[in-house]
Amino acid sequence: MISALFVLTVAAGGFFAREFGLALAAEMIIAIVLGISSPKPRAFCSGLCPRGRALGFALRPISLGKTLPRMFSSRAFRRFLCGTSMFLVVMSLFQVRPGVAVAEWAGMVFWTLCLITLSLGIVLGIVFKPRTWCAVCPLGTLQDTIREGRSRQALSSPSGTP
Ligand code: SF4
Question: Is there a domain that residue 132 lies in?
């Protein structure tokens, strides 16, 4: 319930102050840092992410529980979605308008991303299983990609350690 309240606060708060969106940027940074430093796979997802828990909590009673077509959880699709969203976020951050504070602009970019992905997550969670968003979530894919990179690095290092 706390996770659901947090997600709602960020989503609704952005209508009044775009800086609420910076919460999403902070989540991304934490997920990347944990992805690089934690031995656990998807440490951010299992320990900290409010959205996954919020979707599971809020949508369980109304979810139709259908199975997501395999194509959407394929590695290629997830990477495409992750790469595209990262690209759009970075490009949008550089489009800062004159006279707009950087924090407000960045907040607006991340808040917009928050609303789009939350809406998608809700629709997917109603039609399919409550946490279906987690199967395609760019932040989850990013953590998987970092982990794969770390594993490859460990295998290629002479001592077998990174
Ligand atoms: S996959 Fe995404 S939404 Fe799901 S728990 Fe991980 S970061 Fe959160």
Answer: yes
Q: Is residue 162 part of a domain?
A: no
Instruction: Using the mean position of ligand 1's atoms as its centre, give its distance from the Cα of residue 140 in Å.
Output: 5
Enter the pTM of the model: 0.86
Tell me the pLDDT tens digit for each residue of 69-112. Answer: 988 889 999 999 999 999 999 999 998 888 889 999 999 999 99
Ligand 1 pocket, Cβ-based, cut-off 6 angstroms: 44-45, 49, 51-52, 133-134, 137, 139-140
User: What is the count of structural domains for the chain?
Assistant: 1
Closest CA to 112 of 85, 136, 137: 85
Per the CB < 8 A criterion, the answer to whether 36 and 29 are in contact is no
Burial class (CB in 10 A: 0-12, 13-18, 19+), 52: buried
pLDDT tens-digit profile of 103-160?
Answer: 999 999 999 999 999 999 999 999 999 999 999 999 999 999 988 888 787 777 766 5
Range of the structural domain that residue 73 is part of: 2-156
Which one of 46, 68, 137 would you pick to mutate in the ligand 1 pocket, going by the greatest count of ligand atoms within 8 A of its CB? 137
Query: Which tokens in the block code for residue 29?
Result: 């940074």
